[in-house]
Amino acid sequence: MVRRLPQTLQSARLAPGRQCGDCAVCCIVTKIDDPELQKPAGAPCAHLIPRGGCAIHALRPDTCRAWFCGWRHLAQLGDEWRSDRAGVMISFIPCIHQGYSQTAFKLTTWHRDAVLQPFVLDFVERILAKGLPVYFAYTPGEGAGFKTFLNARVGAGRGTLTTTLGQIMSEQLARWSQIGTPCGLEASGRSGM
Ligand code: SF4
Ligand code: SF4
């Protein structure tokens, strides 16, 4: 049996009444490889206006028009999940899990502590309990793209999840300390954490 996405994603609908506001996380964190626009993960798009906004908004490529993070899709997520507020961006990627082609949740963070916030842990715990595939990625700047398949690392229980995420974060921080240029989100988006 192939697992299915939530109804909101099957129909590609967005959660009603939700706007990006001054969030610009996906214009920095995501890798874009489109005939009209290319940029690496963890680097601000050349069209991103400082303090938010797209300099080519009316003419932005279709890939930008069509792509939204999980917070824009999943109505059950609260306002704390807007990517810049959460310090975590949810996206969806194809994967093979338990022998089937599935869509995995991918949680990308650029702040070492964001993933350990209780509402993030609750969410991860729930989707892991359903057997859905989850990736955790740390993308603090250009040149960084660490991704770990959580299902293979996490056992049962909150203590285990918290400990495992902390371990993964330490591993990824150690790798990041060797390379890369900060993308600026650490200082601007979640400076209060
Ligand atoms: S990360 Fe989500 S909320 Fe932020 S700008 Fe992109 S789609 Fe909008
Ligand atoms: S073109 Fe505009 S919407 Fe697309 S990534 Fe760049 S700043 Fe964001």
What does this structure look like?
It is a single chain. This protein is α+β, with helices and mostly antiparallel strands. The chain has one domain (7-15, 22-188). The chain has eight helices and eight strands. It has helices at residues 7-10, 26-29, 62-66, 70-73, 83-86, 118-129, 158-176, 185-188, and strands at residues 32-34, 37-39, 88-97, 100-109, 134-138, 141-142, 146-149, 181-182. It has a four-stranded mixed beta sheet with strand order 3-4-5-7. A two-stranded antiparallel sheet has the order 1-2. Strands 6-8 form a two-stranded antiparallel sheet. Helix 6 (118-129) links the parallel strand 4 (100-109) and strand 5. Bound molecules: iron/sulfur cluster (2 copies). One iron/sulfur cluster is lined by residues 27, 37, 45, 47-48, 54, 56, 60, 64.
Write the layout of secondary structure elements.
Elements: H1 7-10, H2 26-29, E1 32-34, E2 37-39, H3 62-66, H4 70-73, H5 83-86, E3 88-97, E4 100-109, H6 118-129, E5 134-138, E6 141-142, E7 146-149, H7 158-176, E8 181-182, H8 185-188
Parallel strand pairs: 4-5
Antiparallel strand pairs: 1-2, 3-4, 5-7, 6-8
The structure holds iron/sulfur cluster (2 copies).
